[in-house]
Amino acid sequence: MKIKNLTKLFVIALIGSVTLLTSCQKLIPFTNVERTKYNFDEAKLKKLQYYISKEVTLQRGESSGESQELDEDGKLIVSTSASLDNIAIDAKTPGVCVGVLPGNKLKISFDPSDDNKYLVFGDPNNRGRYEIMGAEWNNGRGKINYGDKVYYIMPGGAGAYLKFEMKKIKDYKKSSTKVKGRKV
Predict the structure, then answer these.
(1) What would the 3-class secondary structure string for the chain be?
(2) Is the distance from CB of 26 to CB of 34 less than 8 angstroms?
(3) Are the C-beta atoms of 118 and 147 separated by less than 8 Å?
């Protein structure tokens, strides 16, 4: 009786192990091929978890001008002020689709609370991956709108593309029985 229970337990454990070992989870580039193959309409695109392929840094700078005044010793003091704002998005940062644009473009937000802070990824020419897009590019720097401000994608961020997680599960079921034979 104990041997039969151990055999059943072994078979159940073997089936579980085969299922676990054959499930596969990986990040793959998001392309129009996958979009078509898996029938991703706007509703499904907004439910899919996206990831960015590499680090992207957004930067903007402002100078608030120059002011002049005289100090008590009669010296002219000229002061200028500027601010530099950097936003870093690390590789594999998760993002969500907050909008679909014409021409195979997606608005992807990596910001945890503001849907207006998004990057546009697209493949308007059906050439492959959905890559980061900017209004204009100069020396590897792309000009974009992020929230209500103009930022520049810093060199190194060009070519960043979207990835998504695919989990394939192959379910193999195997049963084995040992027969003892049959006598007349």
Answers:
(1) CHHHHHHHHHHHHHHHHHHHHHCEEEEEECEHHHHHHCCCCHHHHHHCCEEECCCEEEEEEEEEEEEEEECCCCCEEEEEEEEEEEEEECCCCEEEEEEEECCCEEEEECCCCCCCCCEEEECCCCCCECEEECCEEECCEEEEEECCEEEEECCCCCCCEEEEEEEECCCCCCCCCCCCCCCC
(2) no
(3) no
Neighbouring-strand partners of residue 97: 108
* Dihedral (CA of 152, 57, 101, 116) sign: negative
Name the residue among 57, 60, 83, 86 with its Cα closest to residue 153. 57
Q: What local confidence, expressed as pLDDT, does residue 19 receive? A: 39
User: What integer pLDDT is reported at residue 173 of this predicted model?
Assistant: 74
Whether 38 has a pLDDT exceeding 50, the answer reads yes
The model carries a pTM of 0.72
Q: Find which of 40-54, 79-93, 129-143 is predicted with most confidence, using mean pLDDT.
A: 40-54
- The number of CA neighbours under 13 Å toward the Cβ of 73 is 3
